[in-house]
Design goal:
Elements (H helix, E strand, L loop, with lengths): L7 H18 L8 H19 L10 H10 L10 H4 L2 H16 L8 H11 L2 H9 L5 H5 L1 H12 L3 H14 L17 H7 L11 H25 L4
Length: 238
């Protein structure tokens, strides 16, 4: 029988990662804040636990890897840090994992999981996946890593539905982009509404886990209803 998660040592590392995340995300805008990360963490763990029910024990995701990758996934978001900082997540996070090992007795550097977590952080984003696909660099690890898929799906699920609508508006406000413009306006391509058509409406069809796909249906429909309402209100007839 598998040990109950988290153990005392695992909980100590998770608490340290959460502290690092909260301190870091306080510098970012509300579209990418600690509350977003907490939702991703919660959803990623739920996806991982659900996936576990359908997989043999040796193929089940490591819940500690999932939770830590979810907590750290936006610490080095390229929208908020320099390209140099984001270039090597393992080098960036290694001091954190070494300190956590001393404090908890759980050495994730030694057992290799720190490198896996950093690799997930490096590969979790939608834009990174698009670049890998375009370059023909999607490899077997990317296709098969269940921990990656759980964190990716959780992050993408928070980009659609009710929270996705809120976050899209928040990021547009933070970057001083229009929420909605008439078609043909020079600001239209960078507006919040256009972002739905450029990215958010495509997310549903690019999720990896079966429970993630199930959650996406309702959220996708909510976005469609929202966009229809926006157009109805904009085109109001007196």
């Amino acid at each position: 029988m598998a040990a109950e998660y988290p153990s005392k040592e695992e909980a100590m590392v998770v608490a340290a990662a959460e502290e690092l995340m909260v301190k870091t995300m306080a510098r970012y805008d509300p579209s990418h804040d600690a509350f977003h990360v907490q939702r991703v963490r919660k959803t990623a763990l739920q996806l991982a636990r659900t996936v576990c029910e359908t997989l043999p024990e040796d193929k089940r995701p490591d819940l500690l890897v999932v939770e830590l990758a979810a907590l750290l996934h936006d610490v080095l978001d390229k929208k908020y840090v320099s390209a140099e900082e984001a270039a090597d997540p393992y080098t960036f996070f290694r001091p954190f994992f070494e300190k956590a090992a001393l404090e908890s007795g759980l050495d994730l550097v030694k057992d290799g999981r720190a490198r896996l977590i950093a690799r997930i952080v490096e590969n979790v984003s939608w834009s990174t996946e698009k670049k890998l696909i375009a370059a023909g660099k999607i490899d077997d690890w990317y296709r098969s890593c269940v921990e990656l898929h759980c964190v990716q799906d959780a992050d993408r699920l928070d980009a659609i539905g009710a929270f996705g609508i809120l976050r899209c508006a928040a990021y547009s406000a933070a970057t001083n982009h229009a929420l909605h413009t008439p078609e043909g306006d020079p600001a239209h391509e960078s507006s919040a509404i256009q972002h739905f058509y450029d990215k958010l409406l495509h997310i549903k069809d690019h999720l990896k886990t079966e429970p993630g796909k199930k959650l996406a249906g309702k959220r996708h429909q909510l976005m469609l209803d929202f966009l229809h309402a926006v157009e109805d209100e904009y085109n109001v007839q007196s």
